[in-house]
Design a protein that fits this description.
The chain is α/β, with parallel strands linked by helices. It is built from twelve helices and twelve strands.
């Protein structure tokens, strides 16, 4: 019997999320009240004006034709205006922007549009799983740049061999980052652009968490670096910034050759974002520019503070991240033992089974993720405090 499953599917790296989903189902079957802090899906809806714009647009009779993979002129122009407002950068909406069904759409397809089989892409480890999945689909070889706590979870460009630089087509960066919640300043991006120009490598920056920052920190765009557009593109997403995760809308901005390549690929595989969703996206960006959009950063900063303090009271000391909706937590010192070692997967599974609190083991994001878990702040403060109480009982081995 022929196998009706491509070998490349085994390289996509998403199996841990399906595995954790099964753990959750089993915990529920066993009667656990699950507090799901595993997936970074916002728990609040978009603002009322965004929902209103969407509801009005879907009633229009002319809204149901093919929207076009490039994006509507109105949406692209609004995205360019927002980039100018937020980062002070000048982007040509006709040639330096393309709309996406969420940034994951672009991240998953980018290597297909930029690389030939056997090319190399530099990717962070730990990193968001779609980075590796996109390379696997395109037959692109990954070079994993280790992100370590002692380096502030920043890649060391000097460690990358010259031979790797020669074969590399692009380098993927993500700050503020998922899963490690690290942040970068403009000086870091200036250094990255200098290396990219020296080696002829495109920088792909994933800036999905640009509006989810705390303590007065404002994440920069790599396109703020002088002449960065010669060697860089940047992904933006409305999913986290405006609670529009289910709408599937984002965009890629930057180097026109790279943008054109992704546009060309998408013109052959999809017909773009539903026009009413683009209309809702326009309102989201307009609201933000007018100061009428409630900051998601304030919401998640309060959740971060409450959760970190509650965990500290339970004996688990974790540094406070400056951005994102995630806590990247080094495994706690367990006060009881199993016959097997406490690695990230064992702790994640046992904690869910015994307490109902679901997190993602760090090794799901790469080899360097072992020894950590990722916790998503996707519940209200009271539920997060309850999760911390249960985690404390788990650490102490209390029933």
């Amino acid at each position: 019997m022929k196998e009706w499953r491509a070998d490349r599917l085994s390289e996509l790296g998403s199996s841990i999320f399906a595995e954790v989903a099964e753990w959750k189902r089993e915990a529920i079957r066993q009667g656990q009240g699950v507090i799901d802090l595993s997936i970074g899906s916002p728990d609040l809806p978009p603002s009322a004006p965004i929902r209103q714009a969407l509801s009005e647009a879907v009633l229009r009779e002319d809204a149901y034709g093919y929207p076009g993979s490039k994006g509507s002129e109105r949406f692209l122009r609004q995205a360019a205006d927002w980039l100018a407002y937020r980062f002070g950068i000048d982007i040509d909406p006709q040639h330096e922007l393309v709309s996406l069904m969420g940034s994951q759409d672009g991240l998953g397809h980018l290597a297909l549009s930029l690389c030939n089989p056997g090319d190399i892409a530099l990717v962070p480890d730990p990193g968001y799983p779609v980075y590796m999945a996109g390379l696997a689909l395109a037959g692109t070889d990954p070079y994993r740049m280790p992100l370590r706590a002692e380096n502030g979870f920043m890649p060391d460009f000097e460690e990358i061999p010259e031979e790797v630089w020669k074969r590399a087509k692009f380098m993927l960066l993500n700050y503020p980052s998922n899963p490690v919640s690290a942040v970068a300043d403009l000086a870091f991006f200036e250094q990255a652009v200098a290396y990219a120009k020296r080696h002829g490598v495109l920088i792909v920056h994933d800036l999905a968490y640009s509006e989810m920052a705390f303590d007065g920190y404002k994440p920069p765009s790599i396109l703020q670096v002088k002449d960065a557009i010669e060697v860089a593109v940047e992904f933006h997403s409305l999913s986290k910034s405006f609670n529009m995760a289910g709408c599937r809308i984002g965009f890629l901005a930057g180097n026109r050759k790279a943008v054109a390549a992704l546009r060309e690929l998408k013109a052959n595989i999809d017909y773009g974002v539903f026009l009413p969703v683009q209309e809702a996206g326009i309102v989201a960006l307009q609201q933000d520019m007018l100061g009428q959009q409630e900051s998601v950063g304030c919401l998640y900063e309060k959740r971060r503070d409450r959760f970190i303090e509650a965990l500290r009271e339970q004996g688990w000391e974790i540094p406070s991240p400056k951005a994102t909706m995630f806590i990247w937590a080094k495994l706690p010192k367990m006060q009881w033992s199993l016959s097997e070692a406490w690695d990230s997967r064992r702790i994640s599974r046992e904690m869910l089974e015994r307490t109902g609190v679901a997190v993602i083991p760090g090794d799901a994001f790469g080899e360097q993720g072992e020894g950590y878990v990722r916790i998503a702040l996707v519940e209200n403060e009271e539920r997060l405090a309850e999760a911390a109480r249960r985690i404390g009982q788990f650490i102490r081995g209390e029933e």
